[in-house]
Here is the input.
Amino acid sequence: MRILLVGCSGFVGRALVPLLLEGGHQLVLLSRSSTPLASVQSPQLQRLQADPAVAATWQVPAVQEALASSEAVINLAGEPIAEKRWSDAHRQLLSSSRINTTRALVAAMQALPEAQRPKTLISGSAIGYYGTSSSERFREASGAGGDFLAGLCQAWEQEAQTASAFARVVILRIGIVLGPDGGALGKMLPVFRMGFGGPIGNGQQWMSWITRHDLCRLIAEALANPAYQGTYNAVAPAPCSMATFASALGQVLGRPSLLPVPAPILQLLLGDGAKVVLEGQQVLSERLQQQGFVFEDPELSAALARATT
Ligand SMILES: NC(=O)c1ccc[n+]([C@@H]2O[C@H](COP(=O)([O-])OP(=O)(O)OC[C@H]3O[C@@H](n4cnc5c(N)ncnc54)[C@H](OP(=O)(O)O)[C@@H]3O)[C@@H](O)[C@H]2O)c1
Here is the structure.
């Protein structure tokens, strides 16, 4: 398949691109950088530079041509969520980098003659869609939460859903992605390796996770299998508390994990962004179970063993 990728130069894309290349796909990587994923060299990989969040990007002939010759599009673009304090300007960027990018992408797909439109769109979202709760269990049919991230995810998904008028749309509400070189685990690992790790906050908050390995396998499967359609919770079947997660991580690394990270320290660093790790949600991947997706990392300890190496 020829696939156009947006927002795939980051933590997830670093693993996704090699997996898709191994699968024999032809990839066009659209990025704000001139050399995204510079270490990946392949005749099957073409790079295009343009800011995908800016609507004019999609009018550039090389981008239009790449879109028109692609059978599928994968859209994971978005300013990182938990890296900075959420000032008003930063909230705006968190939203626009997802919502405007998706809107401009779908408009560009729609503007093509019908025969040239990519037939499949796989677009990102997050389990933040549901808001946070210590007691509720969220399935795909559950309603959206009422906080900033829930509103952002709703608007982001609505833009992607517009493409369902002419394409197969798969929206992945992604959980906490586990890999050694990024995301929440990437930040926790150095501290745990030094023996200073422990649960963040009160430890009771839910962590609904998926290994990066399984998320990339899921994206590849959703591309190839037309039975995938609509919204899926991209989480492994074993959500756990932060305390359980920290203890399992300590065990996998052979290090103590008893030093809790107090919530105020994180709030001082990240402001509202700390919410992402201090408050969680228990999310079930009901539709993936129905679809018969087989996780290679369904269980926490084995998942952490893979995700820390
Ligand atoms: N990692 C997780 O635990 C997790 C959990 C839930 C949801 N997600 C979502 O899954 C997607 C991929 O996650 P990730 O961890 O791979 O993210 P990431 O490493 O932060 O990369 C996201 C990509 O978005 C693009 N991007 C970053 N800032 C942007 C901006 N201001 N405007 C336009 N594009 C921008 C970048 O592409 P270029 O620099 O190449 O343009 C980058 O490759 C994101 O949308 C994220 O919100 C991730």
Q: What stands out?
A: The chain is about 40% helix and 15% strand. Residues 88-111 form the longest helix (24 residues). The mean pLDDT is 95. Residues 7, 9-13, 31-33, 36, 53, 76-81, 93, 97, 101, 124, 126, 174, 176-177, 182-183 surround NAP (CB under 6 Å).
